[in-house]
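User: Is it possible to get a 3D structure for a protein together with its bound compound? The compound here is zinc ion. I've pasted both below.
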Amino acid sequence: MMRFSHERLETFLSQFRRLIECESPSSDPRALAASAALVAGIGEELTGVRPRVRTVEGFPHVRFDLGTGPRRILLLGHHDTVWPRGTLASMPFSAENGMVRGPGADDMKGGILIALHAIALLRAFAGEDLLDGVSVLITADEELGSPTSRPLIESLSAGAEAVLVFESGGASGEVKIARKGVAIYEFEAVGRAAHAGVEPEKGVNATVELAHQVLRIAQLGAPELGTSVVPAVVHSGTTTNTVPARGTLAVDSRAESVAEQERVDASLRALTAVVPGARLVLHGGINRPPLEDLSSLPLLGRAQQIAEALDHPPVRPLRVGGGSDANFAAGVGALTLDGLGTVGGGSHADDEHALIEWIPRRVELVAGLLGSLLEDPLPHH
Ligand SMILES: [Zn+2]
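Assistant: Yes, that's possible. Here is the predicted structure of the complex:
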């Protein structure tokens, strides 16, 4: 049985400190370059593989390819954080009372190390050959919605037998099996201006048009299926004494299934103007597809078997509203399991922390899961 030794935990914690103390806000290319170099160096020590750093529009994505065979399993993480440079002054690294704190502790500098240490542990116990076909991709723009890494994530995921994602787990060690898909729209209503006092009948009122649409759109949700459609920001008109010629309405929609995401999309595209003479133009669309549990359940089952064999607490599933890069991996058809990173809390908040007692369990679970998937692949998805 692969166990994560105390010596390995000491190494993990010293690397954790170096990663947290190398601040890496998504919007700072110089900070990201330094962080990518650090991830590359630590990763090379642990995987035995020299990484390639691919910088796209200032975002350095770090990739490790183990072995030379076809790519089989992708371990996916990100090294950017939501914290601006200078955050360390008020939120310094600490490892006390069983917790590691600091910017990115839980989202997801600890997750990167769990992935890399799982590979190191598996190498030590099973040898290099078993790991042929494993890739690790640590991106630099996840917190921005992955604008430059998305094609890389999708191309590596499309052919993979499994994608393991290292966002933090639930508070009791749950893994994430479903994330809602996100769609963002903007309706533009085009009317005609006229003097509101002198000849209002000559105008076509964009505000009235949007009012009709707001009430229609608000009916499109399906709460029982987890689908929300929220008419949000409205801007319309210029001055009180002018019939508004133009207005816009922003809409946020979230759905648990591709079918629901497509139903809402089609319904929004089918809306037509109500006010005579007005026109409706729809901008935007589906941003992230949902991570559906169908994409995760076979991997969850395998992870639960491994946890039991390791005598760990049971691995329970969790469904969440927000998206991650797991949505993109599942969107191209890959079996995908998320939430394999640290167990802690406070992501994007001042009390961000990772629990030290969970680190050995997480590394052992991922090493066991990875070894099992390589030796005994899941049936094709
Ligand atoms: Zn994250």
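The first helix runs from residue 6 to 20. The first strand starts at residue 52 and ends at 56.
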